[in-house]
Every structure is written in C-alpha cells, then in structure tokens.
C-alpha cells in the first residue's frame, strides 16, 4: 500500500448496506449439499451456488453495488472496466438495468462464452492484448475518450462489500459453519467474505484457495508483502489476475490461510460437481472444492462452506 492510500474501510455495516442495496438486482443463491460428496471427503459440505447467480457468477453482487450506488451525475457518463469476462458481464448487466452505457476492456484470449455474455448485455467490448499492462492502458484510453466511471474488477471497496454479501447469506442459512473456503484471484470475494464472516462468527476459519500455477496470493500471504502475478498458467481463467492492494490488506487481517491446488485437482473437483451434483461449474468455481480434495486434513470432520464462484464454462473447451 502506497503512502497516499488509506487503509480499506470495508466493514460489516458496509456489507449489510450493500445487501440491502442489491436486493432485487441479484439472486439469493441456494446452498447445495451432497451426501455422496460428504462421504467422499469425510466433511459436511455446504456449496454456496454462485454459479446460479445472475450472469452466472458472484460478480453480479459487487458490480450491482457499485453501479446502484453511483450519483446520477456520475452514472450518466457510463461505466468502464477491464475483465476476462465475469466482472465485465456483471457490470454490463448492472449498467443496462440502470440505463447507462458500459465499456468493457477484454483480453483477446477471453473465453468466447464470456465475450458473448458481455455483448449480450449491451456493453461495448474493447479488445486488448492479454496482459495486465495492456488492460490498464486500454481502459485509460476508454476513460479519456468517454469520461466513464471506472469500476475496478476487485480493488474497489464497493465491489468488495458487494461480494461480502455471500457470507451474510451463508451464515444465515448455515449458522454453525466451522470453515469457509473461497477462491482467490483479485481477492474481492475472499476479502469481502472474510470481513463479514469474522464479524458475525469470530471463531470461523476462512481459507483462500488458489491454483498453484497462479499463486501470487499464496506468496503474498506467506511473505507479508504483495507479490506480482507473473505468467499465470491455469485453466481457472478467472483467477489469473493479480491480487489487489485493498484486497490484500483485508486478507492479511481477516483470512486464516491460503492454500494452493494442482490443475489435476481442479479438473477432478469440476468433474465431481458436474457428475454428482449436476452443477455446471467453471474451473475457477471448482477451485475451493479442489482445496477440500487436495487438503482433506483441513476439512475432515468439519462443517465447511464451499463458495462455488461461477459457472460460465466454454462447453467447446472442457478440460476433459
């Protein structure tokens, strides 16, 4: 965190306000269970089905909170962001519901299903090279040209608060949870969940799960200093981004640990959720369950929430 930045101020009150603001704009997604997967893992598992969320991912929560909270003078100029897909689709839908334009900067290698979703919600897609530098430079050009308000995919307190509403619903549905496992890419979901969960149930363990091939959050958490994301190699395309500054500060304070998982475990988790739960889960959404499969000793015998973050998978490019 640089000297001119203030510590993040995301609180339980901000998350509760976000939950009230986005009511009606997003789904309260179900909590799913499977006796077979409980037996397979030796844990009592509760899957928070954000793959059934509007736009097919949890991102609808943060984007809706940010867009619905904009003053009219700012909203009228439209919104913009960079995204590999899920946040872009969520922002496009939120903007369409408010009747304002949206520009989404997308890397050229973004999954076709996610590009189609962004376009389907009426946003303008602006292509860029598949690097963080290219995404940020192209977004700056869009803002300069249109004066749009930037809603960052994860390093934004409004977005973090919106994502944290997942934990409010989880702990209302299953109040006696011992642990919550959530994926971590940019960190908005994990940070928001951790803030809310620790405020409501201080004894709960919050675990971030990350692909071993994109392990900047794992390294940052272990070293106590934000590390860059370098050449991520994982099928979990939604988790290839680098950890945000605000997100890391909250994760340091409220998350208990971060573990990594192999690509094989991600595919196994995805296959089990498809075949046993009949849940169409994308690779990023399968990562937390992969954590249970690969780090079973952390979860065995406990009541565990698994945040299934999304279901926007390209059916023509399945990992099996």
Mean pLDDT: 94
Helix coverage percent: 40-55%
Q: Specify the number of helices.
A: 15
Second-tier CATH architecture of the largest domain: 3-Layer(aba) Sandwich
N-to-C SSE string, H for helix and E for strand? HEHEHHEHEHEHEHHEHEHHEHHHE
Strand order of the largest sheet: 1-2-10-7-8-9
Question: What does the main sheet amount to?
Answer: 6 strands, mixed
Total of domains: 2
Cofactor: Mg(2+); pyridoxal 5'-phosphate; Ca(2+); Mn(2+)
GO molecular function, one term: magnesium ion binding
Family: Belongs to the serine/threonine dehydratase family.
InterPro entries: Ser/Thr_deHydtase_PyrdxlP-BS, TrpB-like_PALP, TrpB-like_PALP_sf
Descriptive account of the structure:
- Keywords: Lyase, Magnesium, Pyridoxal phosphate.
- There is one protein chain.
- The protein has two domains: about 10-60 and about 155-310, Rossmann fold, CATH 3.40.50; about 60-150, Rossmann fold, CATH 3.40.50.
- Helices cover about 45% and strands about 15% of the residues.
- The protein has 15 helices and ten strands.
- The chain has helices spanning about 10-20, 35-40, 60-70, 70-75, 85-100, 110-120, 130-145, 155-165, 165-175, 190-200, 215-225, 245-255, 265-275, 285-295, 295-300, and strands spanning about 30, 45-50, 80, 100-105, 125-130, 150, 180-185, 205-210, 255-260, 305-310.
- Helix 1 crosses helix 3 (about 60-70) and helix 8 (about 155-165) crosses helix 10.
- The termini are far apart.
């Amino acid at each position: 965190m640089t000297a001119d930045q203030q510590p993040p101020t995301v609180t339980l009150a901000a998350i509760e306000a976000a939950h009230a603001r986005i009511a009606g704009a997003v789904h309260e997604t179900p909590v799913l269970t499977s006796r077979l997967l409980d037996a397979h893992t030796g844990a009592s598992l509760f899957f928070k089905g954000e793959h059934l969320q509007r736009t097919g991912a949890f991102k609808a929560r943060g984007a809706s909170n940010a867009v619905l909270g904009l003053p009219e003078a700012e909203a009228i100029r439209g919104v913009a962001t960079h995204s590999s897909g899920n946040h872009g689709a969520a922002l496009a839908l939120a903007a369409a519901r408010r009747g304002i334009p949206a520009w989404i900067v997308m890397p050229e290698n973004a999954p076709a299903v996610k590009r189609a979703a962004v376009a389907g919600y009426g946003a303008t897609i602006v292509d860029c090279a598949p690097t963080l530098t290219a995404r940020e430079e192209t977004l700056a050009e869009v803002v300069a040209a249109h004066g749009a308000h930037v809603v960052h995919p994860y390093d934004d307190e409004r977005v973090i608060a919106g994502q944290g509403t997942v934990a409010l619903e989880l702990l209302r549905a299953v109040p006696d949870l011992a642990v919550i496992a959530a994926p971590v890419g940019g960190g908005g979901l994990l940070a928001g969940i951790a803030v809310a969960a620790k405020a409501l149930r201080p004894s709960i363990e919050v675990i971030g799960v990350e692909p071993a091939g994109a392990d900047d959050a794992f390294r940052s958490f272990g070293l106590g200093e934000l590390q860059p994301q370098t050449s991520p190699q994982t099928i979990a395309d939604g988790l290839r981004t680098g950890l945000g500054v605000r997100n890391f500060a909250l994760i340091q304070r409220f998350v208990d640990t971060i573990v990594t998982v192999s690509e094989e475990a991600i595919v196994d988790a995805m296959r089990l959720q498809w075949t046993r739960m009949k849940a169409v889960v994308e690779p990023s959404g399968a990562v937390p369950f992969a954590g249970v499969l690969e780090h079973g000793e952390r979860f065995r015998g406990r009541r565990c929430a698994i945040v299934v973050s999304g279901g926007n998978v390209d059916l023509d490019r399945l990992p099996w």
